[in-house]
Amino acid sequence: MNRVVLRSVVGGLVNGRSCNRYISTAVAVARPLESSEFLSRQNGGVLGAVQWRSRMLMSTSSSSGQATSLAEKEQKEEKESTNGNNSVDVSSYWGIQGPKIRREDGTEWPWNCFKPWETYEADLSIDLSKHHVPKTFLDRVAFRTVKSLRVLSDLYFQQRHGCHAMMLETVAAVPGMVGGMLLHLKSLRKFEHSGGWIKALLEEAENERMHLMTVVELVKPAWHERLLVLAVQGVFFNAFFGLYLASPKLAHRVVGYLEEEAVFSYTEYLKDIENGKIENVKAPEIAIDYWRLPKGATLHDVITVIRADEAHHRDVNHFASDIHFQGKQLRDAPAPLGYH
């Protein structure tokens, strides 16, 4: 028997067979028997070799099962952690990580859409009665256009001030973005500064958008009102884009009159709250943080600060139109940055 084994080993070395051919990978494939298996077969029959191979397969399957079980456990824990914190941790290959920000009282800052340094206390000393009297032909065109739009909105919304405010803010947030975008492109084309007006107009657009985010917390729009928003935004954006390209001074005058109407609308809103027609509910948390309102702020406080913002936008856009009417460019006058 030993002579047979010796002949087999010597034959393998002479023929240059690789020893790796005889190394088991614990995979059930047909291969030549090793000498140890051959001896086991002779001494204990085929049963010993089969038992040895079965143990190897079971060991491999057990390792694979443990790895799968471990991965499933980690996924389950991650899912439970995500659901518990109501947040999603996004891993980034680029090393980007948001800052951990807290309020002054130590609680975690809950908003991703704005940061504490972007909040402010509204200036309520603004003159609400100011009005630009139409003097030129373009002034009268702007004034009549806005008055016509006001009639249509009043017929549709009537005394539903919340829905009216929602529609108003979806429109009011468009001009600042369009004006800032076109001034940005002009600055790139002509290699000149904008005098800060790009940032001022984008600040206006962002402020108006925050008005909308606040109003939506108070008013849950119906499906037909959402559909109306889509239609109005599509028409107004393209119309104002063309108007600003053709005549920036007319475009800013139109916005100035739109803001005058906004001041009037919010004044009527406040009157109905004071008269008890509309419940003076608690202010949304987003409004309390954005305008730095006291914890006990109410709807009346929120509408008051929004109205003050609209009055500031009124002044800024009438000022911008006056600059153009005097034959100058916006960059010739300093932009009122931070003038909400």
UniProtKB/TrEMBL annotation:
<comment type="similarity">
    <text>Belongs to the alternative oxidase family.</text>
</comment>
<keyword id="KW-0999">Mitochondrion inner membrane</keyword>
<keyword id="KW-0496">Mitochondrion</keyword>
<dbReference type="GO" id="GO:0102721">
    <property type="term" value="F:ubiquinol:oxygen oxidoreductase activity"/>
</dbReference>
<feature type="compositionally biased region" description="Low complexity">
    <location>
        <begin position="60"/>
        <end position="70"/>
    </location>
</feature>
<dbReference type="GO" id="GO:0046872">
    <property type="term" value="F:metal ion binding"/>
</dbReference>
<keyword id="KW-0812">Transmembrane</keyword>
<feature type="region of interest" description="Disordered">
    <location>
        <begin position="60"/>
        <end position="87"/>
    </location>
</feature>
<dbReference type="Pfam" id="PF01786">
    <property type="entry name" value="AOX"/>
</dbReference>
<keyword id="KW-0560">Oxidoreductase</keyword>
<keyword id="KW-0249">Electron transport</keyword>
<keyword id="KW-0479">Metal-binding</keyword>
<dbReference type="GO" id="GO:0010230">
    <property type="term" value="P:alternative respiration"/>
</dbReference>
<keyword id="KW-0813">Transport</keyword>
<keyword id="KW-0472">Membrane</keyword>
<comment type="subunit">
    <text>Homodimer; disulfide-linked.</text>
</comment>
<feature type="compositionally biased region" description="Basic and acidic residues">
    <location>
        <begin position="71"/>
        <end position="81"/>
    </location>
</feature>
<dbReference type="InterPro" id="IPR038659">
    <property type="entry name" value="AOX_sf"/>
</dbReference>
<dbReference type="GO" id="GO:0005743">
    <property type="term" value="C:mitochondrial inner membrane"/>
</dbReference>
<keyword id="KW-0809">Transit peptide</keyword>
<keyword id="KW-1133">Transmembrane helix</keyword>
<protein>
    <recommendedName>
        <fullName>Ubiquinol oxidase</fullName>
        <ecNumber>1.10.3.11</ecNumber>
    </recommendedName>
</protein>
<dbReference type="InterPro" id="IPR002680">
    <property type="entry name" value="AOX"/>
</dbReference>
<keyword id="KW-0408">Iron</keyword>
<keyword id="KW-0679">Respiratory chain</keyword>
<dbReference type="GO" id="GO:0098803">
    <property type="term" value="C:respiratory chain complex"/>
</dbReference>
<dbReference type="GO" id="GO:0106292">
    <property type="term" value="F:superoxide-generating NADPH oxidase activity"/>
</dbReference>
<dbReference type="GO" id="GO:0009916">
    <property type="term" value="F:alternative oxidase activity"/>
</dbReference>
